[in-house]
Amino acid sequence: MRLIMFASLFCLIVAGSAISAQCTSVGLFRDPTPATCGMPDDGPGMLSIYVVMMYSPGVTGLQFSAPLPECWEGAPWISDTSHFITIGNSQTGIAIALGSCLPSPVHVLTINVMTSGLVNACCPYPVLPDPSLESGEIEVIDCGGNVLIGNEYTSFVTSDGSWAPPLVHSPEPSDGAVGQPLEAKLSWRIQQCSCGLGVVWNTVFFGTTPDPPMVAQYLDPSIYDPGSLAPATTYYWRVGVYDSDAGTTESPIWAFTTGSAVPAAMTSWGRVKALYNGDKAD
Fold first, then answer.
1. Which residues of the chain have a pLDDT value below 50?
2. Residues of each domain in the chain carrying CATH 2.60.40.10
3. For a FRET experiment, which of 67, 82, 139, 251 has its CA 20 to 30 Å from that of 229?
4. Cis omega before residue 67 (within 30°)?
5. Do residues 142 and 58 make contact, with C-beta atoms less than 8 angstroms apart?
6. Phi, psi at 43, each rounded to 5°
7. What would you report as the CA-atom Rg of the chain, rounded to the nearest whole angstrom?
8. Do 243 and 198 touch, CB atoms closer than 8 A?
9. pLDDT for 1-58, tens place per residue?
C-alpha cells in the first residue's frame, strides 16, 4: 500500500499506481539553502539537519525515511519539525504534503539530533525509502499527481563536518583468498565522504609482484576484468580513487591466489565417469 499526499492535503491509500523516474533528489544538509552536506559531530549539543527536495520543477508531496546511521554513535534523535503536514517521523518513515506545487529547492523537514562527539572518521548518512512502501523507493508526487522515484542522496557526518578523501573497502576477491577461479574479476566499494557530486574515477594496479604496476585508469565502475589468470599464482592489487571534491585515496595492497587448472579429462561428464570407474579415458 502506498500513502500518497495530494496538494489538497487529503491522504489516500492506493495500490498499483504507476511509478516513473525523474531527476529529483531528497538530501540532508546543514543549512536549508542547501549548501553544505557535511554534518559536524562536535557535541554534545543540539544539531538541526535540514531535509531539502532538489532538482525538481515542482512537487506536492514526498515519502521517505532518514534514520540516524549506526556509525553515529550515541547521537539520539530528538524530534522532527516542518512547516508542512506530516504523517510519521524521519526515523521510521514519513509522508509530507506540501499543500501546493513548489519548485525545488524546498526545505521540507528539520531533523533535530543531540550530537555525541563520538562519530567515526566518516559516517555516511543517506536518505532512504519509507519501509512501508511496496515500491522500495523514495517516492515523490509531482504537480500532476504522478508518483515519481526520488534519487537516494547520501550526506555524511565527521567530527567537524568537513570533507575527507573517499574510503576504499570490500575487495573481491577478498584479501588472502585462495583457490580463486582463473576468470576472477576485481571489484571494490567506495565510501565517499563528500557531497557525492564530484567526479570520481578509479585507477587499478595489478600484477604478480607485491608492488603491482598500473593496468587501468579513469574507470567509472568499481570493477576490473584482468582477463585469464595463470593457475596456482598469487596476484597483488590495489585501487586509487579520485574524488574531485575531496581528493585522492589509495587502498592497501590486497592479494589472492588462483586455483589449479582443471584437467582436460574433467571437461566432460563422460570423462569424469570414466575416470571414476577406473576406465581408460579416450
1. 1-18, 21, 264-265, 267, 274, 280-282
2. 164-258
3. 251
4. no
5. yes
6. -65, -170
7. 25
8. yes
9. 333 332 222 222 233 344 554 567 899 999 888 878 888 888 788 999 999 998 888 9
DSSP 32: S
**Nearest of 242, 207, 245 to residue 222 by alpha carbon:** 242
The total of other beta-carbon atoms located within 10 Å of residue 95's CB is 22
Helices (H), 83-123: none
- The residues facing 79 across adjacent strands are 112
Comparing CA positions, the residue from 44, 90, 95, 42 lying closest to residue 67 is 90
Length of the chain as a residue count: 282
Determine the Cα–Cα distance for residues 2 and 136; give it in Å rounded to an integer. 10
CA 242 to CA 140: how far, in whole Å? Answer: 32
| Cell numbers given for 36 | 553544505
- Which residues in the chain are classed under CATH 2.60.40.680? 2-154
Is pTM beyond 0.70? Reply is no
Give the fold, CATH level 3, of 164-258.
Answer: Immunoglobulin-like (2.60.40)
Identify the architecture of domain 2-154 in CATH.
Sandwich (2.60)
Neighbours of 227 (CB within 10 A): 8
> Residue 21 and residue 7: Cα distance in Å, rounded?
20
Which residue shows C-alpha cell 557530486? 197
Residue that is written with C-alpha cell 555524511 in the block: 156
